[in-house]
Every structure is written in C-alpha cells, then in structure tokens.
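Sanity check

After download, print the first record. It should look like this:
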Amino acid sequence: MSLELCEMSLQQTKDLLRLTDQTLQNICCKRFTGEELYVEVLGKVLGGKGRRGPASIFLVFREDDGSLCRGRVFHMKEGAMVERSEEISLDPLSSYAESLMHAQGQEDVVVNWADSFESIETFQDYFHSAVKGAVAAPIINFITCQISGETPGAIIAFNYPGRATNYDADVLRSMAVVIGSLLTLSDEVRETEKAFIYTVEALARACEAAEEGTGRHILRVNRYAGALAANMGLPIDFVETISYSAQMHDVGKIKVPASILLKEGDLDDRELELIKMHPVYGEKILGDSPRLRIAREIAISHHENWDGSGYPYQLKGENIPLAGRITKLADVYDAIRSRRSYKEPLSHEEALTIFRKGDSRVNPKAHFDPVLLETFFKIEHIFAKIYESFD
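Expected structure tokens:
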C-alpha cells in the first residue's frame, strides 16, 4: 500500500510540475487571476476519477495585518470540475484561526481522527462551523501546509480516503510551493500589465489635443466594444483585451493635420484621402508587438464595411478582423451621439433609428456584421448608459 501511495504522490507532483512549466511558458501572454490559478492547481490534487486526494481543500490567506482571515473551500463536482464555497471569514482571535496560525510555523500537520480523538463526532468540534458546512461531510482527517511568499496563507486538505499520510503531505507541500510561487509571479505580472495598459491609454490620448472630447470618446468606445464582445460569448481574454485596445482605433490621426480634423463642413478630395490614411498610419504606429495585435487589427480595419465598400483595403465580411468589426459599430454609435465640428449630437433613440434604417452616412446592412448588429439591439440600453456615464 505504501508503494501505491508513493506512486500516486509522484504522479500528482509531476502534474503540478507540468502546470508550473506551462504557466511559466505562457506568462508573457496569459493574464490570470489568483482564483483561476487556484482552480488549475487544485484540480491536479483533489480526489476524483480514480485519483487519490482530499475531498475538499480550504485555501486561506492572511490579511495585511498578519492574521489568517479569509478563504474558500474547494471540492470536486461530478468527479472533475472544481467548485468553490462562498468566502469564509475567520475571526483572527478564534481558536480555529489561532490553530491555523500555529500551523504556519510548522512544515506540515497530518491528523487522523482516530489518533487523537475519542470519536468522529468530537473531532468535528475542532473545526470552524463555516468550514464544516462547506465541506458538507463529517471530517475524518486533514493535512495543513503553509503557503509562503509575498501572499502567505495556508492549505488545509480534508477527508483523504482511509488515512491521511506523509505521502499526501508531500503532495500538498508541493502544491503550497507552486501556489506561493505563481501567486507572487502573477502579482508582478499584473503590475506590469497595469503599466502596459497605462501606456496604451497615454498613446490613445495623444490625439485628444486635436479633437475636443476625444478622451471621453475613446473611453466610451472601449466600454461599448467590451460589452459587445462579452454579450457575444467571446473568450474572457479577448473581452479584456478589446476593452482597452478599442481606444487605439484612431491613433493614426496623430499624423493628420488638426486643420483637417477640425474643419467645419465637407472635406475636399485631397483632405478626404488624407483622412482615409489614418488606419494605415495607426497600424504603423502600433508596430509589430504581439501584445498590440488586437489594437493593430482595430486600427487598420475599423473603417472596413461588411459589404466590402470600406477603406483602406475594401475587406469584406469575415475577412475583416472581428475586433475591427466590433470597434466599427462602437465607434459609429458614439460618433452619432457626439458633437462634431460638422454635426450636432443625436439622442440614443435617434441613433437606434439610424442603426435600423440608416441615413446619408450609415447603411446598417451594408456596413455592419449582422450578428454584431443583432447583439447591439439586444444590449442597446447598455450603450445608452455608457454614453450617459461619460457625457
């Protein structure tokens, strides 16, 4: 039996190593939250589908004042999916929190009820009521390991089949190291991500001096684009990326003279051709960075039309990048609602009429992806709220 447990422990440790390696390989392009990381790691260790492991894991972290206070209980659902409890808050002065704090000073703690308690019933008195409720079964054993690093905490694993063993503790300790290390790394990546997005925003605002109101316009277009992407059921990474990349759609206008951008009345042919170059300018300004791929697609394609009548390359249908199609609709809605040197702002209801019937500038059936147009009408009230919040 010990050999079998050792082999199971080795396999689970290998799974954790593979997950760590995969995360590190993708670290430059993957933006994960702490909880997404927990779910991936916990899924490698929790029991289910023939694997040995605990039935439930309580993952708890210290508050800034140094006490262990908040966490969630995770367990397997239908043998595969990791499910979480509501957040559990512990009084730092409670006996259970104090016992967890005490465990922080040790390598690990392995406890089976039969070793120290008269009955399973009396063993239950040791645990916090919210934790017992989340585990939803009598607790027969547990292992506690500390999580070190910049976000210290503890892992408490409950209800291993049979007895909890030192082999199980080895796996749990490996998981604690993985979580501690990757959480520290993910915090640093998030800080880098914030700096990156701030730089993107600064670049997008660079043309604000030329066109009054551009600052609010680009923020609204971000929100519209994110709302469309989310309501189309697109992947969360895409939704997050387009929600800050859409503001880059007109960055190429930096190279267009302000006298043309602010001209009242119609543009002549030369001025119109120069305006139509701003997507090309924008693509060149954004360069070839992989991180700016979506922004680059938006800059070059947000004036293309579904029927192929747009510019600069007369792309048609699904040959137009999805991010460009989304941003086009968002940009047109905001342009209709906004004051320009050549027009007065229109109401939301007037904008809806144009999106249904068209006008001298907008032909909905010819200009917009029909799926996007359908999504727009389902969430048009969200567009109205976004505009009002920034107006």
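If your output differs, re-run the checksum step. Summary of this record's structure: Residues 208-390 form a domain with the Hypothetical protein af1432 fold (CATH 1.10.3210.10).
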